[in-house]
Amino acid sequence: MISGAVDLAHGILIRPVTLDDADALARAYRRNRDHLGPWDPDRPAAFYTPEGQAERVRVQLADGRAGRSAHWVLASGAEIVGHAALSNIVLGPARSGNLGYWIDAEHVGRGLASAATRHVCAAADTQLGLHRVEAGTMLHNTASQRVLRKCGFEEYGLAPSLLYLHGAWRDHRLFQKILNDRPL
């Protein structure tokens, strides 16, 4: 289980997602549709509705309870201005998870992606007991690559045809951060 709200910067809080966030998430995704479009998969119309987001959050919360993922929102008052997640969490000898995040177009360039990444990595280490966090970016997503490098991630490879986005399989740069060397 991940713990409560933390002030990242500029009055923006990062906190675990709740079902009460569905309306604000729907507004945020509609507001950022063009901004996130180049990096996100094609989304059905229902994704942008409060009902669609409520269903999505229910799945995220169930996955969180099962130890498969952890999800946070970045909030400015009642508005959601970002999301961060660890998905595909694997325990056992791997003890790893995949980092993903996005920041509202109006809040880009304020250090929020870096602050959220640091927060998620700290939670991955101290609250979830993970050893390693991975992240992948499309080749031309240099902004996310800068964030990852700034936060101590190292590039370790290229994954050809990793994700199907916008009608084609897209190559991704792979990054990792080793959080600790504790034994199991």
From TrEMBL:
Protein name: N-acetyltransferase domain-containing protein
Domain N-acetyltransferase: 12-176
Keywords on record: Acyltransferase, Transferase
Domain of life: Bacteria
Similarity comment: Belongs to the acetyltransferase family. RimJ subfamily.
Keyword Transferase set for record: yes
Record PROSITE patterns: GNAT
Residue ranges of coiled coil: none
One of the record's GO cellular component terms: cytoplasm
InterPro entries reported in the protein's UniProt record: Acyl_CoA_acyltransferase, GNAT_dom, N-acetyltransferase
GO molecular function, one term: protein-N-terminal-alanine acetyltransferase activity
